[in-house]
Amino acid sequence: MAKVKVLVITGFGTNCERESAYAARQAGADKVDICFFSDLIQEKVFLKDYNFLVFPGGFLDGDDLGGAQAAAIRWKYAKTISGTSLRQELENFLKENKIILGICNGFQLLTKLGLLPALENNYFERQVSLSYNDSARFEDRWVWLKVNTSSPCIFTKNLDYLYLPVRHGEGKVIPFSSQILTQLEENNLIALQYISPQNKQPTLEYPYNPNGSPLGIAGLTDPSGRILGLMPHPEAYNHPTNHPKWTRGVTSPLGTLIFANGVEYLRQ
Amino acid sequence: MLARLEVALRPEVRDVRGEKIARKIKEHLNLDVEEVRIIKGYTIDGLEAKELDVVLKEHFLSDPVLHKVAFEPLAQDFDWIIEVGFRPGVTDNEGKTASYTLERIFKKTIQVYTSEQFLLKGNLDKSQVEHIAKDLLANELIQRFSYRSFAQWKNAPGFPLVAPKVTGQASTEVEIIPLAPLSAQELVQLSKDRVLALSLQEMEVIRDYFNLPAVKEARARLGLAPHPTDAELECLAQTWSEHCKHKIFNARITYEDREKQKTEVIDSLFKTYIAGSTQKIRELKGEKDYCLSVFKDNAGVIKFDRDLDVCIKVETHNSPSALDPYGGALTGIVGVNRDPMGTGLGANLLCNTDVFCFASPFFKGELPPRLLHPRRVMEGVREGVEHGGNKSGIPTVNGGIVFEERYLGKPLVFCGTVGTIPHEIKGRKGYKKKAQVGDYIVMTGGRIGKDGIHGATFSSEELHEGSPATAVQIGDPITQRKMYDFIMRARDLGLYNAITDNGAGGLSSSVGEMAEDTGGCDLDLSKAPLKYDGLKPWEILLSEAQERMTLAVPEEHLEEFLQLAREMDVEASVLGRFVDSGKFLVRYGEKIVAYLDMHFLHHGLPQMELKAVWEKPKFPEISQDKIRVGRQDEFLKQMLGRLNICSREYVIRQYDHEVQGGSVIKPLVGVLSDGPADAAVLRPVLDKDRGLVVSNGICPKFSDYDTYWMMANAIDEAIRNCVAVGGDPNYLAGVDNFCWCDPVQSEKTPDGHYKLAQLVRANRALAHFCQAFQVPCISGKDSMKNDYTGGGQKISIPPTVLFSLISVIEDISWCQTSDFKLPEEEIYLLGLTRRELAGSEFLAELGLKGGDVPQVDVLSARKRYLTLHEAFKQRLITACHDLSDGGLGVALAEMAIGGRLGARVDLAQVPCCPGDLTLEEVLYSESASRLLVTVRKENRDRFRALFQGQVIAYLGETTALPELVFHYKGEKLFSCSVEELTRAWKATLDW
User: Fold this and answer.
1) Residue B467's closest CA among B667, B293, B322, B600?
2) For a Cys staple, B856 with which of B361, B498, B543, B928, CB 3.0–4.6 Å?
3) How many CB atoms lie under 10 A from the CB of residue B986?
4) What is the mean pLDDT of residues B965-970?
């Protein structure tokens, strides 16, 4: 069985690294490390030594210039002390059947880097973006999600519905064109959708859809299904008492299952 | 070359931020606009034309999916356009990120300044546009604006390029200020002119110090004048400021109690009542004492478990928030974050708790000069704390807002932060620190600018029309986050011996305090990194520029420390060494800027002598016919809609309250997650079920009657809230935070004797009730000059104390929330209801003042809380809510709202004293120490047995029918549907 080695990358305003690492440990990973972006530059840590990358939530560069914009530029141009391009390292990582999970600000980074949705396998091309919620407000609330069982996404296997918190001000998916939106749908790259708890159908209705994302898009995957980006925070539901209604005896599948699916995939 | 990149949305992208501004123009200013669109501007200094072209084409500062960009004006199709940009020297975080991003690519120095253009469509005239610019879009203290009509724009499109660069000459000027020849009056004038906030007596002590032969001699040896330098004077003023030295709390007070015909002398309120009572409680707790570090560090520390300690600090940032609500509050929150970060060897930041006091956001009167409209203050503060907390990745787990008209004069912004410190770090206790002789003075984080100069002395003064604008700063959460990441790593590697933050007083204060460990320092200001030229040495020493920590790094770790900082992109500068010379020595290169005896600096301040006179204020009796209410159902809804009672969901949702993944009880609870929580609970260590409870108590509404009972109620409320979620009454630690109006008798404060008596009484209550409840205070703060004068009027805030609590619980699964859970559960009221309407929301709704203020019967209350905790542990409680603003009626309604279930209660069951309370008194009295709980029928006997001999009453049952039905002796009085109650409760602040 393959060893699952998770690297959670932080620094420059990322702030969900600890609970993301905890969720990965809960999910059964063999090794979970947290590293700073600067550790990659200093070659204290190498992407190639891991097979599961997590880009956690936070406020990279304070959301200045738009969520993860500055970080995307940084990843694109950064070189390590011995001159290796980090972007190249990422490309190599992807070629090797490895997996990447981007949560909230991490999802913004993946779209802005062009790793998601990568339609027609055009990686590193920005096809969609994430921008301000329709309310133009940051909001913290729990939302109901439906998993697209036809999507190739390996992180959402065997899951159907999830209840997770969103905590963002820029979570609305904006495709470059309406064709791109159609393609996302046709290629089943929409991995998760906000739904109404009443009819369990994808919705545009606030607050069930907290940001106005078209088709209720809450998470996207790439054609390989090995990259998932999502606005909700699976790592924040790592214990039954995280559920806002646990004192009422209410429970639902833990968000850590998303991580567990990643671990499971790599084991096989 | 200077160029402005304009970034507009592509036409297919909805401008939701513009829509929000349009809504605000409508709601805040009552003006109609059809549409607002926003264009962002980045004015770039330092790139050549072909490089600029790359910025545009490669979309370094824009998003190809969202934006169209150009180096020429993009605005079209509008009636008016307003441009807002920063004034020179004001923190421009986005500009900083843009500069940083471009610098990494082009490998050279680049400066980027941001601005925004607001394109308005609608039938507006010039004065309305100016109103929008001035009173909504820009704060002229920190921002500039200009505007054009479409016609003007068409003639000459575009605004002139503005690069708000601070221009100044590097300066090493040190001024000598002879005090010896000055008369008393001149000394006072000097203190005033330089914003020193020192009294005549203090000025005289300084003058006399410089006249001492030994001092003169020592100075002469170094070639220094026998007079203070500007830096010395400023440094003393800062170190001796009310803000830093708590002169009033340490004063010798002659307290005359005219009610009891007694006079006594109190030698320091702080030592006598606050530190004194904590000491006694710790002795009483003996081996079970969980306090580790109280009142000596930036935050108080208690034990959490074997491996971890927790610390807490609550600060206020009132004066800056009055001038610039957003920047003031943002700085408040990131500022208080540095207190735990600078406690012991440095704490990880766990959560924030914030409490605000404002005047009504619906204020309609005329605003006195320099004051901002309370709605603007509230929105700005809310947003500042949102950005400060959210961007730092620290959950805002709970808080509160108090509305009272006198907070128009000064809003109160309490920001609290809880941190965790490993109990042991590399063989050292994490909560201890000590700089060693020879350690290097290292400053990390942000650079120094003119920001916040005189913050400490400024906050020690009243707010007036001419208050200095440099006192305002804008925090930068990301620079701080990067520094925090670095410091936590350096801490765990054991690279330093001591750490403290640069807050009020800047380096002067941080280095001055740390130098006490070794008995001196040698600080060279020429090594300090500056944001721009033009700061004099004393300004570098005193600047309160944010995001800086000072550390004591031993020689053997210095290289590793600096290397790690470089790698993590954090600036760290060696500014000198800690020595044992007994001198606070500051130089600028070779030039000596300050040379003071450490002892004089820290202990030279003479104790203040003050007088306090207590005379019980008289209020009318409240006759029963005045408090009769017509329709009870309508009245209950009115009560629920009151500002001090209504839902805070609007504010809460915009705060991240669950980042870090340990949230257990969130600020919003219930079946639809919109009911009120009494306190927050979290899991500091994710793989343990041990919990931390955070709660607050604040009731300035009782201050006009008697601050003694105000304090008692605040403490009781904090404990009540804490035990209502499952907190342990035997494992509590408190933080007192006093915000007072000037209590020193003077011409401008003719009622100073009374205000000081109010302070004395609050302190006495603190000592009495903390001891009786066995709550040690571990940290605290005071802010004593919360007055405003201007336009011929003076507004003093009501004396206010925020009492914050943390509690450690063994098992989070004991916890409960306030919402009704299931139909047919029994409802019990714990505690006695008295005729105590003074200060109540009920009387305020009726526009009345008077009656009796709630008193706290601490013995029965403590017993009740202990028993309740036992009931929680036995899992007998299915819901619990404390009774506070609005009493029983409101508490019941809130539980029903949270669960969207009804209840049938009989008010005749309510235990009352005396027995003849009217219906209104039963429903709305705010007697202390009361709680409502629900219990399942099968647990009834066990529950009742636990409470045997205590005042509790069965009031009725929850019902599936969502209706609150009130009976009296079996007869129905009135009812309200829960849906209507919910609507009333949510409507007021549904923004």
Assistant:
1) B322
2) B928
3) 17
4) 96
Q: Which residue in chain B has the smallest CA separation from A14?
A: B393
C-alpha to C-alpha distance for A161 and B788, rounded to whole angstroms: 56
Residue B463 has a pLDDT of 59
Collapse the DSSP code of A62 into the 3-class scheme (helix H, G, I; strand E, B; otherwise coil) and give the result.
helix
Collapse the DSSP code of B779 into the 3-class scheme (helix H, G, I; strand E, B; otherwise coil) and give the result. Answer: strand
HEC readout, B80-141: EEEEEEECCCCCCHHHHHHHHHHHHHHCCCCEEEEEEEEEEECCCCHHHHHHHHHHHHCCCC
Q: Confirm whether A168 is a catalytic residue.
A: no
C-alpha distance from B585 to closest chain A C-alpha (Å): 36
> In the predicted model, is pLDDT for residue B458 greater than 70?
no
Q: How confident is the model at residue B179 (pLDDT cuts 50, 70, 90)?
A: very high
Rounded Cα distance between A226 and B984, Å, is: 49
Q: Which domains are present in chain A?
A: 5-267 (3.40.50.880)
Do the Cβ atoms of B318 and B783 come closer than 8 Å? yes
User: Which residues from B are below 8 Å from A63, CB to CB?
Assistant: 391
Predicted confidence at residue B457, as pLDDT, reads 60
Please identify among residues 22-81 of chain A the ones whose CB lies closer than 8 Å to any CB of chain B.
22-23, 36, 38-39, 41-42, 57-59, 61-66, 69-70, 73-74, 77-78
Backbone φ and ψ of A230, nearest 5°: -145, 145
> Which residues, 6+ apart, have CB-to-CB distance to B894 below 8 Å?
B675, B676, B818, B881, B985
Enter the ipTM.
Answer: 0.96
Report the alpha-carbon angle A66-A70-A75, nearest 5.
135
Q: CB of A180 within 8 Å of any CB in chain B?
A: no
B817 within 8 A of B898, measured Cβ to Cβ: yes
Is residue B648 predicted with pLDDT exceeding 80?
A: yes
Task: Give mean pLDDT, residues B174-193.
Answer: 93
**Per-residue pLDDT tens over the stretch A71-98:** 999 999 999 999 999 999 999 999 999 9
For the question of residue A186 being annotated catalytic, the response is: no
- Residue B471 scores a pLDDT above 70: no
Q: Which A residues, 228 through 257, put their C-beta within 8 Å of a C-beta on chain B?
A: 233, 235-236, 238-239, 241-242, 244-245, 247-249
B938 Cβ contact list (under 8 Å, min separation 6): none
Residue type, B451: D
pLDDT digits (tens, 9 = 90+) for B218-260: 999 999 999 999 999 999 999 998 888 899 999 999 999 999 9
Q: Is A153 a catalytic residue?
A: no
Catalytic residue among A35, A168, A235, A243: A235
Cis omega before residue B743 (within 30°)? no
